């Protein structure tokens, strides 16, 4: 019988249910969404697949120990009970990160030090050497999660966060995180079987993520993962997993994808990113004002992350822009479903359309909304 491993996949808050669906499709068992992530279990290969294929997870953590604690010493003992030298070679660099929710202990930094000591003591006992610490680019990350009584110690199987796909060349200002963009596409119910348009595409994050979905390309196909340092790493099985994924890729996207922006420099960034992600052929890009452009095709899904601002002059400009966005939708996008993702919670009122759905999402610590508008000709307009 195959050994069962317990995992936890953190994700941007608000995407837990769509991440749970994605993990179920990858064969995860015991799926339990919680605030900020999804716990699940499965075999070792599931961890390879989740890292390679998850578009929404931020990381895949492997749970090593979960038990109650009262003091820093209990956490040291739990960390010391793990046979670290069996997990990775002493030549790997390490970093310990601690997160606490309701933890009553005084210093999370001190706990990180205690856990680092436990890892090093475990190596010293086994081979008289200890791994070095590298806080910038460690080979191995250890995550400790503390509630008021419970401690969980994980080893990170991903390494760099999974939203770092490896294709981004240009940022073009304020790009969305790739896993947030992919999660929004899933929340929009877009399944690569209807046209998609981002009329304010910036550096093209929605477009690249959509094109990868439409060409069935795994988001992790370009990068390396921390699990490649693990002693349990099986290069043959990992290569088979990647080859299976490459073989399933499609030469052409399954639907039309369009993007536009009114700023030539950011369009150049979008073009560079699409090319680097090998999906330049799947997206029609053009310079256009979102307020003036027409729908590119028969009805589909419009998704965008309009500009938002904090300074007063920006707010004045946005106060004028948002109602015009509502007008443009109403006049030229009958039959479309439109999704606006924003941190500017005034948009809902200013756009003067009735949202059919509002979803609370977090971009880091920033509370945002995803508003859905179903554009049926002649309706939606709110009375002024
Ligand atoms: C928040 S950024 C979008 C970022 C994008 N989602 C990404 O990940 O890179 C907003 C974009 O809207 C564009 N924009 C602002 N007003 C516009 C308009 N009237 N027509 C088209 N694009 C516009 C800006 O040039 C900017 O690239």
Q: Care to describe what's here?
A:
With 384 residues, the protein is of the alpha/beta class. The protein has two domains: 5-156, VC0802-like (2-Layer Sandwich), CATH 3.30.2130; 178-217 and 256-374, Vaccinia Virus protein VP39 (Rossmann fold), CATH 3.40.50. Helices cover 31% and strands 22% of the residues. The protein has ten helices and 14 strands. It has helices at 16-25, 44-53, 72-80, 108-127, 178-187, 205-214, 235-247, 264-276, 312-332, 347-350, and strands at 5-10, 29-34, 37-42, 61-68, 94-100, 140-146, 150-156, 196-198, 257-261, 283-287, 301-304, 337-342, 357-363, 366-374. The strands form two sheets. It has a seven-stranded mixed β-sheet. It has a seven-stranded mixed β-sheet with strand order 10-9-8-11-12-14-13, covered by helices on one side. Helix 2 crosses helix 7. The longest helix is centred in the C-terminal third of the chain and has 21 residues, at 312-332. The radius of gyration is 23 Å and the shape is globular. The termini are far apart. The model has no long low-confidence stretch (mean pLDDT 95). Residues 172-176, 200, 202-203, 205, 261-263, 266, 289-291, 305-307 line the site of S-adenosylmethionine.
């Amino acid at each position: 019988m195959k050994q069962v491993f317990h995992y936890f996949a953190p994700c941007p808050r608000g995407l837990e249910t769509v991440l749970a669906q994605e993990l179920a499709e990858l064969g995860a068992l015991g799926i339990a969404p919680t605030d900020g992530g999804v716990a699940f279990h499965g075999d070792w290969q599931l961890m390879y697949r989740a890292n390679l294929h998850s578009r929404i997870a931020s990381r895949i953590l492997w749970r090593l120990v979960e038990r109650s604690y009262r003091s820093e010493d209990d956490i040291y003992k739990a960390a010391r009970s793990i046979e670290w030298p069996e997990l990775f070679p002493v030549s790997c660099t390490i970093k310990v990160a601690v997160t606490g929710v309701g933890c009553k202990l005084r210093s999370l930094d001190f706990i990180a030090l205690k856990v680092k000591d436990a890892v090093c003591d475990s190596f010293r006992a086994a081979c008289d050497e200890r791994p070095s610490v590298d806080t910038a680019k460690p080979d191995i990350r250890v995550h400790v999660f503390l509630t008021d009584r419970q401690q969980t110690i994980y080893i990170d199987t991903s390494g760099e966060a999974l939203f770092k796909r490896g294709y981004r060349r240009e940022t073009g200002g304020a790009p969305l995180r790739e896993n947030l963009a992919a999660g929004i596409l899933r929340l929009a119910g877009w399944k690569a079987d209807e046209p998609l348009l981002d009329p304010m595409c910036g550096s093209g994050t929605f477009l690249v993520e959509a094109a990868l979905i439409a060409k069935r390309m795994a988001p992790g196909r370009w990068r390396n993962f921390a699990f490649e340092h693990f002693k349990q790493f099986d290069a043959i099985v990992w290569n088979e997993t990647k080859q299976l994924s490459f073989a399933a890729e499609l030469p052409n996207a399954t639907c039309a994808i369009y993007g536009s922006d009114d700023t030539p420099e950011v369009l150049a960034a979008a073009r560079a990113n699409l090319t680097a992600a090998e999906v330049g052929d799947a997206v029609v890009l053009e310079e256009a004002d979102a307020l003036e452009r027409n729908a590119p095709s028969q009805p589909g899904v419009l998704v965008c992350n309009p500009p938002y601002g904090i300074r007063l002059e920006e707010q004045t400009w946005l106060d004028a822009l948002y109602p015009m966005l509502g007008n443009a939708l109403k006049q030229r996008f009958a039959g479309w479903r439109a999704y606006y993702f924003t941190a500017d919670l005034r948009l809902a009122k200013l756009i003067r359309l009735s949202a059919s759905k509002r979803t609370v999402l977090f971009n880091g610590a920033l509370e945002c909304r995803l508003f859905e508008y179903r554009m049926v000709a002649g309706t939606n307009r709110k009375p002024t």
